C-alpha cells in the first residue's frame, strides 16, 4: 500500500514539487548547522588540544626530572661502601656502622625536594635513615615487607605513603623511590629516597579551566589527594574511555570532557587533563540545535502539505485494501473493482514475483542456516525458530548427514582453474540432490573444499530404517553417476541418525570419521559409521617419535634417495599394521609435511612443487599408498637438492667457517680471524655466510657461545666469570649482557631456575631456526 502511495505521489507534479522544495530547504539548513558546528569544534580541538598536551608534557618533565635526580642519588647510595658494608655486615655490627652511613645519607639528602633517605638491610630487618638514624627494626608505617617482595621482580618502585614527622610532629605525605641492592644476584637490601609530596606537586602547572589527575602503575590516584573535581567513580569512566589514546572526548557524571593524557617512562605515571566541553560549546550547540529544529519543521510542513493535497486521491486505494481482505467484502464495494482492476492486477503480480523469489532463495537460506549452526553462531532458541521457518515441510527429527569427497582432491584441483572447479562442484551437488530426491529430503550443508555434504531426512517416516540401510547402495549408484558424467572418483561417509538439527554437527563429524577410512579401504569406498559402533583403533602410531624423526633426518642428510623412499614406505605401512585411527594418520602426515617444509626453508633448499603447494588437510583425500608416494617424492627430491647443494664450493667454505668457530670458541675471535681461516675477505665471507645460512656470522657465533654457556651452567659448578672466559668473553659484564639479550635472563637466574625446577628452565636456542641443525 505504501509503495503504491509513494509511486502516486512521485507521479504527481504538484506533490513532487512540494516534497523536493521541503527536502532541499531542510537539507540546506541542516547541512549549514552541522557544518558550522563541526568547524567550530574542529577549531576548538586544534586551539585547546595543543596547549593541553604541552602543559601535560611540562608537568611530566617536572616530575620526571625530580625522580631522575632522586634515582641518581639512590644509585650513588646503593654503590657506596658505607651502605654496602651496612647491608652485608652482621646484625650485631650494624649499629656501629650506622653513624658514618647516617652522616653520608644526610649529605645526600641536602636538597629541598628530598625529605629523607633510608638504607634497608633485608637480613635482620635493619634500617638507617638520614632523619631517624638507626632505629630498631623496620618501623614508620611503610609496608616494607611487601616492597622488598616486589623488588625481586622489579628494578625500581615508586610508592606513596604517609610518615611521621621529626620527633613525632604530625605526619608527612611522601613519595618513596625504592631501588634494590643486589649481591651475588640476590636482593639483600634497598635504598629509599623519600620525596616531599606537597613540594613536588606544588611545582606542577595547573589552570583553573583544567583538571589534572595523576595515577600510578596500579591505577591508584596519586594527585590530587583532596577536593577532587570529579569523583573516583566518574574517573573510572574517563580512564576506560581514554584507554591508551592521547586524546578523546569522554563522559563523567553526565558531563562531557575533552581529555588529554600522557605516560611517564620514568615512573610509569599516567597524567590526565580534563576540560569541560559544556562551557566551551554552549553557544555552538544552541545554534546547531536551532538549525536542526528548523530543518525538521520544514520537512513537517512539506509532509503536511502533501498529505492534505492527496488525502482525497487515496480514498480508492483504501477500498482496494478492503477488497483484498475477504472478511471485509461487501456488495457496495464490488462496483469499484472494474475501475481498480489494473491496480489490483499490479499488486497481485508483484506479490507473485516476490513469493517466487522467496521460494528460489529458500535452498540458500537453508544452507546458510546450517553453516551458522555448525559454526555455533546461533543460540538454541534462534536455531529452533529458523528451523521451523525454513524447514516447514520437514519433520522434527530422524536426520542423517551424507558426505561425498573427491579422491586425490589436490591432484584433481590442480587440473582446473578456480571457476571450472566451482562449476564442477556445483554440478556434483545438483546430481546428489537429484539422485536422492525420490526418497529423501535433502539440503546442502555449506561448501566443503573437497566435495559436498548433505543433510538428509526420509520422506516416509515409516520407512526410515529401510531407507537408511539402502543409502549405502544409493551412494554406490551416485558414485557411478559421478564417474560417468563428471569423470570424478569419489568416496562417501554416512553419519548416524540424530533426533534434532542441533545435533547435526555430531552426525557430520561421524560421517567425516567414516569417510576417513578411505585411507585403508582405497578410493571409491563408502562407509557408514553409527555412533553406537566405534572401533578401538589407537590414536597414535606405535613406534613413532624421536627415533623415526632421526631416521628420515639421517637419510635426508646422507642424500640417500633409496633410504628416504624406504623410510616413507615403512613409516606409512606402520599405520596399517598398527591399527591407527585414520584421522590421527592424517594429522601425522600434515605435521610431517609442515616439518619437511620448515627443514627445506632452514636449509635454504628449494622445496619440491608438491611440498610447496601442500596445504593442511590435503592428505585427507589420499589413500595410504598415495600418502607414501607423496612422502617418497618429497624426501627424495630434497635429498637430491641437498647433495647438489653440498657439492658447491660456498657450502664447503661455510662449513669450514662453522668448524673454525666451534674449535676456537674460547678464544677472542672475530670476523677478521674467521675470514683469515678460509683466506677470504671480511665482506666476502659475511655475504656468503648470510646467503647460505640465513644468519649473520656475529649472530651465529653469539648463539654458539651462549649455547655452550648454557651447558656449562647446567652441568658444572663453574663461576660466571670462568664460564665467560671459556666461551670467548674477556669481560664478565659483556657476557652477562649478551646472555640476557639471547635468553632474557641473567646467567645466575638461569642457573637458579635449573636448580629450582630440577631441569631446564629455559633451553638454549638453536644456532639458527629450523630442524636443519640436527643434520650432520
UniProtKB/TrEMBL annotation:
UniProt-listed Pfam families: GGDEF_2, HTH_18
Membrane-crossing segments per the record: 290-312
Key words of the record: DNA-binding, Membrane, Transcription, Transcription regulation, Transmembrane, Transmembrane helix
Keyword Ribosomal protein among UniProt keywords: no
Name of the protein described by the UniProt record: AraC family transcriptional regulator
InterPro entries: CdaR_GGDEF, Homeodomain-like_sf, HTH_AraC, Tscrpt_reg_AraC-type_HTH
Keyword Nucleus attached: no
GO molecular function: DNA-binding transcription factor activity; sequence-specific DNA binding
Ranges of residues in domain HTH araC/xylS-type: 655-753
Feature: compositional bias, Polar residues: 766-776
Origin: domain of life: Bacteria
UniProt-annotated stretches for the region Disordered: 753-776
Amino acid at each position: 500500500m505504501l509503495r503504491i502511495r509513494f509511486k502516486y505521489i512521485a507521479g504527481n507534479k504538484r506533490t513532487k514539487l512540494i516534497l523536493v522544495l521541503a527536502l532541499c530547504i531542510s537539507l540546506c539548513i541542516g547541512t549549514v548547522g552541522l557544518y558550522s558546528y563541526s568547524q567550530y569544534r574542529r577549531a576548538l580541538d586544534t586551539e585547546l588540544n595543543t596547549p593541553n598536551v604541552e602543559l601535560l608534557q611540562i608537568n611530566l618533565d617536572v616530575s620526571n626530572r625530580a625522580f631522575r635526580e632522586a634515582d641518581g642519588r639512590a644509585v650513588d647510595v646503593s654503590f657506596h661502601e658505607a651502605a654496602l658494608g651496612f647491608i652485608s655486615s652482621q646484625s650485631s655490627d650494624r649499629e656501629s656502622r650506622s653513624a658514618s652511613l647516617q652522616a653520608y645519607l644526610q649529605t645526600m639528602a641536602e636538597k629541598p625536594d628530598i625529605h629523607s633517605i633510608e638504607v634497608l638491610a633485608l637480613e635482620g630487618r635493619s634500617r638507617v635513615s638520614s632523619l631517624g638514624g638507626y632505629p630498631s627494626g623496620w618501623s614508620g608505617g611503610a609496608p616494607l615487607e611487601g616492597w622488598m617482595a616486589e623488588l625481586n621482580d622489579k628494578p625500581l618502585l615508586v610508592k606513596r605513603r604517609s610518615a611521621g614527622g621529626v620527633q613525632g610532629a604530625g605526619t608527612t605525605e611522601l613519595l618513596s623511590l625504592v631501588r634494590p641492592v643486589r649481591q651475588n644476584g640476590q636482593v639483600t637490601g634497598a635504598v629509599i629516597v623519600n620525596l616531599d609530596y606537597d613540594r613536588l606537586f606544588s611545582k606542577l602547572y595547573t589552570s583553573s579551566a583544567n583538571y589534572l589527575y595523576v595515577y600510578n602503575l596500579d591505577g591508584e590516584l596519586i594527585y590530587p589527594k583532596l577536593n577532587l573535581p570529579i569523583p573516583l567513580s566518574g574517573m573510572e569512566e574517563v580512564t576506560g574511555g581514554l584507554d591508551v589514546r592521547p586524546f578523546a572526548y569522554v563522559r563523567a557524571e553526565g558531563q562531557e570532557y575533552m581529555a588529554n593524557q600522557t605516560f611517564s617512562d620514568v615512573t610509569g605515571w599516567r597524567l590526565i587533563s580534563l576540560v569541560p566541553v559544556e562551557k566551551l560549546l554552549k553557544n555552538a550547540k544552541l545554534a546547531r540545535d536551532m538549525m536542526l529544529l528548523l530543518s525538521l519543521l520544514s520537512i513537517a510542513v512539506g509532509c503536511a502539505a502533501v498529505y492534505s493535497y492527496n488525502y482525497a486521491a487515496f480514498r480508492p486505494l483504501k477500498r482496494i485494501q478492503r477488497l483484498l481482505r475477504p472478511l471485509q467484502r461487501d456488495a457496495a464495494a464490488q462496483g469499484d473493482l472494474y475501475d481498480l482492476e489494473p491496480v489490483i492486477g499490479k499488486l497481485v503480480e508483484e506479490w507473485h514475483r516476490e513469493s517466487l523469489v522467496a521460494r528460489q532463495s529458500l535452498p540458500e537460506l537453508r544452507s546458510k542456516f546450517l553453516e551458522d549452526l555448525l559454526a555455533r553462531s546461533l543460540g538454541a532458541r534462534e536455531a529452533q525458530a529458523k528451523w521451523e521457518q525454513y524447514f516447514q515441510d520437514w519433520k522434527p527429527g530422524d536426520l542423517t548427514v551424507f558426505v561425498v569427497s573427491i579422491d586425490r582432491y589436490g591432484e584433481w584441483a590442480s587440473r582446473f582453474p578456480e571457476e571450472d572447479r566451482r562449476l564442477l562442484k556445483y554440478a556434483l551437488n545438483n546430481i546428489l540432490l537429484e539422485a536422492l530426491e525420490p526418497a529423501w529430503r535433502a539440503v546442502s550443508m555449506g561448501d566443503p573444499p573437497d566435495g559436498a555434504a548433505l543433510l538428509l531426512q526420509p520422506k516416509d517416516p515409516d520407512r526410515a530404517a529401510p531407507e537408511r540401510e539402502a543409502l549405502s547402495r544409493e551412494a554406490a549408484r551416485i558414485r557411478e553417476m559421478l564417474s560417468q558424467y563428471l569423470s570424478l572418483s569419489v568416496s562417501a561417509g554416512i553419519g548416524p541418525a540424530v533426533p534434532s538439527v542441533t545435533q547435526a554437527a555430531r552426525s557430520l563429524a561421524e560421517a567425516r570419521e567414516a569417510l576417513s577410512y578411505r585411507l585403508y579401504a582405497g578410493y571409491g569406498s563408502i562407509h557408514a559409521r553409527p555412533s553406537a559402533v566405534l572401533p578401538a583403533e589407537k590414536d597414535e602410531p606405535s613406534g613413532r617419535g624421536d627415533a623415526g624423526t632421526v631416521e628420515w633426518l639421517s637419510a635426508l642428510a646422507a642424500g640417500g634417495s633409496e633410504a628416504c623412499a624406504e623410510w616413507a614406505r615403512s613409516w606409512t605401512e606402520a599405520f596399517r599394521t598398527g591399527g591407527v585411527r585414520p584421522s590421527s594418520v592424517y594429522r601425522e602426515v600434515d605435521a610431517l609435511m609442515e616439518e619437511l617444509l620448515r627443514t627445506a626453508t632452514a636449509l635454504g633448499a628449494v622445496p619440491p612443487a608438491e611440498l610447496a603447494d601442500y596445504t593442511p588437510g590435503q592428505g585427507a583425500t589420499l589413500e595410504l599408498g598415495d600418502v607414501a608416494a607423496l612422502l617418497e617424492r618429497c624426501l627424495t627430491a630434497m635429498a637430491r637438492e641437498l647433495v647438489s647443494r653440498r657439492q658447491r664450493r660456498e657450502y664447503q667454505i661455510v662449513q669450514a667457517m662453522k668448524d673454525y668457530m666451534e674449535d676456537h670458541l674460547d678464544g677472542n675471535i672475530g670476523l677478521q680471524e674467521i675470514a683469515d681461516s678460509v683466506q677470504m675477505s671480511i665482506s666476502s665471507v659475511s655475504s656468503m655466510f648470510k646467503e647460505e645460512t640465513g644468519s649473520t656470522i656475529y649472530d651465529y657465533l653469539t648463539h654458539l657461545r651462549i649455547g655452550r654457556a648454557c651447558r656449562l651452567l647446567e652441568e658444572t659448578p663453574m663461576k660466571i666469570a670462568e664460564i665467560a672466559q671459556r666461551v670467548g668473553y674477556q669481560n664478565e659484564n659483556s657476557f652477562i649482557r649478551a646472555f640476557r639479550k639471547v635468553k632474557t635472563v641473567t646467567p645466575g637466574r638461569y642457573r637458579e631456575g635449573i636448580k629450582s625446577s630440577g631441569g631446564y628452565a629455559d633451553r638454549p636456542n638453536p644456532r639458527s631456526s629450523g630442524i636443519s641443525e640436527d643434520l650432520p
